[in-house]
Write a structure and sequence with these properties.
Radius of gyration: 21 Å
CATH architecture of the largest domain: 3-Layer(aba) Sandwich
Protein name: Hydroxyacid dehydrogenase
Shape: globular
Family: Belongs to the D-isomer specific 2-hydroxyacid dehydrogenase family.
Organism: Falsiroseomonas frigidaquae
Domain D-isomer specific 2-hydroxyacid dehydrogenase catalytic: 6-313
Number of domains: 2
Mean pLDDT: 95
Low-confidence stretches: none
Strand order of the largest sheet: 8-7-6-9-10-11-12
Domain D-isomer specific 2-hydroxyacid dehydrogenase NAD-binding: 110-285
Length: 327
């Protein structure tokens, strides 16, 4: 039996597309020009059974408009673009490509830490402009304390690399107690305890209502003048106005941010654009050929498994109650 699959992007990497084509699926795409309007029109008018989600948000109304829809599979790990409650109400599982891009994002997190600690973008810009400015000294990471907020696959990958260069690593997550001993990483009892003891803080928590602005003025006040804050999770985890103020006043050493609350930020809208000692990038942590291929393949595997009624990976479904409702 073939299935009708809608990809919310103009293309899907060959590793994922091949799986769909070999299964006899009819695959539709959403053009860059059409964007969200085209996505919603196709959901409302085509007999779509599975969606492979890339960059466009999918609202509860869009989900409700497609009576044939049975599964939404993210070619990514985050799921804040999806109205999960709306999908759950319809008994539609929302699946993520958990683990598929973990190494790429972990490496990017380390890259941001190094870029900020050693002032690499600043030195590059000055030297490219014909200067030879050597006044701002950097920070050596060996012996410094890395605090991980969240301890999933990405954070665990970063922990391994940080330990290899001689950092001391701690982690905080509300679910960390279930893991038991995580040596040589140390479990922190609370977010505030982690922040107070860390020289470098890297955010890897999912975006949720409870996590919005989890790093605000009170949390930033716990960091020292040589502290570095890195975020490859979601922009909404940080109160950006509070962080910009701390950076302008020199109360922490710097920040490396791959994600912002609004992406891309409208001109003049984000106080972190132009903030001192801040490295910004356009949500590229998973932007490697390996990660893109792996997430596309995982998304295709998951959508096919769900439509065929096969067992899904335990940690791929973000709303397992939808599976019970559908059953």
């Amino acid at each position: 039996m073939s299935f009708h699959i809608l990809v919310t992007a103009p293309r899907l990497e060959p590793a994922g597309l091949r799986l769909l084509e070999e299964a006899g699926c009819q695959v539709d795409f959403v053009s860059l020009e059409g964007g969200r309007a085209e996505l919603e029109r196709k959901l409302a008018t085509l007999p779509v059974q599975g969606v492979i989600s890339r960059f466009l948000p999918i609202s509860g109304a869009a989900i409700a408009s497609c009576p044939t829809l049975r599964v939404i599979s993210r070619a990514a790990v985050g799921y804040d673009l999806i109205d999960v409650a709306g999908a759950t109400a319809r008994g539609i599982p929302v699946l993520t490509a958990v683990g598929a891009n973990a190494q790429s994002v972990a490496e990017y997190s380390l890259g941001l830490i190094l870029a900020v600690a050693r002032n690499i973008p600043r030195h590059n810009a000055a030297t490219q402009a014909g200067g030879w400015e050597r006044s701002r000294l950097g920070l050596e990471l060996h012996g410094r304390r890395l605090g991980l907020v969240g301890y999933g696959r990405i954070a665990q990958g970063l922990a391994r690399m940080a330990l290899a260069i001689g950092m001391k690593v701690s982690a905080y997550s509300p679910n960390l107690a279930r893991r038991g001993d995580i040596s040589p990483v140390t479990a922190a009892p609370s977010l505030h305890a982690l922040l107070a003891q860390s020289d470098v803080v890297s955010l890897h928590a999912p975006m949720s209502a409870g996590n919005r602005h989890m790093i605000g003025a009170a949390e930033l006040a716990l960091l020292g003048p040589e502290a570095i804050l890195v975020n490859t999770g979601r922009g909404g985890l940080i109160d950006e106005a509070a962080l910009a103020e701390v950076l302008r006043e020199g109360r922490i050493y710097g920040a490396g941010l791959d994600v912002l609350s609004t992406e891309p930020p409208p001109p003049g809208s984000n106080p972190l654009v132009g903030a001192p000692n801040t490295v910004l990038s356009p949500h590229m942590g998973a932007g490697t050929t390996v990660a893109r291929s792996a997430t596309a393949e995982a998304a295709a595997m998951h959508v096919l498994a769900a439509l065929r009624g096969d067992k899904l990976p335990d940690d791929a479904c973000v709303n397992p109650q939808a599976l019970q409702r559908a059953g």
